[in-house]
């Protein structure tokens, strides 16, 4: 008897024939999780996410987030992470809708989706340790610089080389010996 190819009910990915679930691992995780995953830096610099952040419209960010997530997210799953119904997510995403401006909500959503605080147009009052670290690390300025370097291609390598050359190894060693002043840079 020939074994038929099994596919995930949600995303269509090929699965092992003996898999008990009707969903692949990625989709299953999304179906059972109540929390947004930590997205890689690359996720936050995609065009649609950047455009949504620049428009300062959290509903647009919902739509962009769902589109860029892999596998693509339903409004219902995103809503569950945010404490919203599918209908509420749909209304907020509606093109031409007024951008939500309630800061309490914006903060809650930003935290729920783990948006790096450095990318937001408002400040999050009590970021968790993990997010605070990423926020200072991932600012719009740095993202843009990285995109610039990416497009600059060959010259980026040259810049990198010149940056490396700017601090000779002997000076790095000397710096690390000068303890208190270098401490802030070391971490
Ligand atoms: Zn799947």
Question: Tags for this entry?
Answer:
binds zinc ion; single chain; elongated; 187 residues; 2 domains; mainly alpha; two-stranded antiparallel ribbon
Overview in brief:
With 187 residues, the chain is mainly α.
Report on this structure.
The structure is a single chain. The relative contact order is 0.08. This protein has 2 domains: 98 residues, no CATH class; 37 residues, no CATH class. Strands 1-2 form a two-stranded antiparallel ribbon. Strand 1 and strand 2 form a beta hairpin. The protein has 187 residues and is an all-alpha fold. The chain contains 12 helices and 2 strands; from the N terminus they run ββαααααααααααα. The longest helix is centred in the C-terminal third of the chain and has 13 residues. It binds zinc ion (ZN).
Q: Strand order across the biggest sheet?
A: 1-2
Cα-atom Rg, whole angstroms? 22 Å
Distinct ligands, ions and cofactors found in the model: zinc ion
- Could you spell the SSE succession in H and E letters? EEHHHHHHHHHHHH
| Count of alpha and pi helical runs | 12
Portion in strands: under 5%
Poorly predicted sequence stretches spanning 5 or more consecutive residues: 129-137, 154-187
Structural class: mainly alpha
Q: pLDDT average, as an integer?
A: 77
Helix content: 55-70%
Per DSSP E runs of 2 or more residues, the count of β-strands stands at 2
Largest sheet: 2 strands, antiparallel
Shape: elongated
| Count of all domains | 2
First-to-last CA distance: 61 Å
